[in-house]
Amino acid sequence: MSVRIAITGGSGFVGRNLAKRFDPSDVVSVSRRTGIDVSDVDALAEAFANCEVVAHCAGINREIGDQTYERVHVQGTATVIEAAKRAGVRKIVMLSFLRARANCGSPYHESKWAAEELVRASGLDYTILKAGMIYGVGDHLIDHLSHTVHTLPLFATVGFREKPIRPIPVDDLIDVLYAAVTGRMLRQTVAVVGAEELLLSEAVRRVARVVGRRVWVVPAPVWAQYVLAQLTEWTMKVPLASKAQVRMLAEGVAEPWPPTDEVPADLAPHRLFSDEQITQSLPEAGRFGLQDLRFAR
Questions:
Q1: How distant is the alpha carbon of residue 170 from its chain centre?
Q2: Are 54 and 93 a contacting pair, CB within 8 Å?
Q3: CA angle, corner 269, sides to 268 and 270, nearest 5?
Q4: What are the sequence ranges of the domains in the chain?
């Protein structure tokens, strides 16, 4: 099906993979790398011209300088909506987080929820996909886990009693996004989770086995992971874990909250977190080093 689509966050992990499903001539990629910021309504409106759908995939999982959750998620979404209306776009497909909600004490979750509310109230057609943890080539999950077990054969749990996760292969998520862009799930907010439920420690063991490394899993309190997250946010280009990600893992990434619609059965993610899927998603083998530090040249 031919649809002209603009993708915010077009140079990001999900945006890049979504663009591959369309003819390149039908895709407008919008990101700071392409010189368009989500705060610039005039530039966005010009970019969205002649597009039928905007896939709003832009987002951050930590705040750096003026790139705050409020600015990127809330104000950015408001600007995307205004630009879409100016350009005559008929639909917005927004990628949100599985447990985004109001009044929960997490700026990440609350800002994503506020953005959802803006889209639902926009008057435009929309689909909001509330997704859990996504993995694939260039992700933050398998990429970081594989580098971690190459660097140090030790993994600390997020809390003494781990909560489950349901990792989603990026190809499965893109199937759902593509369906939304091309007309399905109209005016719905839909939860998207992976086919298999497991603990993060089990995911770590599987990744370690696939890359041929031994790993010891030790229990640790959630507060210790928050300390580690803050340190890696300060020091790493891509943090080992952000504070927002610790919050996600501490409460589990397996069920939506608040409850919402389920993805149609024929689109439900079906690939397991298997050795084959892990192998396909692995980055080049190696450990974390100086090149991963924010201030390294």
A1: 10
A2: yes
A3: 110
A4: 5-133+169-193+255-269
Q: Is 148 exposed, middle or buried (0-12, 13-18, 19+ CB in 10 A)?
A: buried
pLDDT, tens digit (0-9, with 9 covering 90-100), for 277-292 = 999 999 888 888 888 8
Report helix, strand or coil for 286. coil
d(CA 258, CA 109): 12
Q: Collapse the DSSP code of 226 into the 3-class scheme (helix H, G, I; strand E, B; otherwise coil) and give the result.
A: helix
Please state, in angstroms and rounded to a whole number, the distance separating the CA atoms of residues 184 and 186: 5
* 74 and 118 Cβ atoms separated by less than 8 Å: yes
3-state secondary structure of 128: strand
- pLDDT tens-digit readout, 100-124: 999 999 999 999 999 999 999 999 9
Nearest to 200 by CA among 113, 265, 136, 135: 135
Between CA 279 and CA 289, with CA 284 as vertex, the angle to 5 degrees is 130
3-state DSSP helix/strand/coil % of the chain, to nearest 5: 40, 20, 40
Strand residues in 214-267 grouped as ranges (E): 216-218, 261-262
pTM (2 d.p.): 0.94
Q: What is the 3-state secondary structure (H, E, C) of 92-117?
A: EEEEEECCCCCCCCCHHHHHHHHHHH
Q: 273 and 196 in contact (C-beta within 8 Å)? A: yes
Any idea which fold 5-133+169-193+255-269 has? Answer: Rossmann fold (3.40.50)
CA 199 vs CA 27, 32, 203, 205, 250: distances in Å:
37, 35, 7, 10, 11
What backbone torsions phi and psi does residue 164 show, to the nearest 5 degrees? Answer: -75, 160
The whole-number mean pLDDT for each consecutive block of 10 residues of the chain, a chain of 297 residues, reads 90 95 95 84 95 96 91 96 97 98 96 98 98 92 90 93 97 98 96 97 96 94 96 90 94 95 96 96 88 78
Cβ-contact 239, 229 below 8 angstroms:
yes
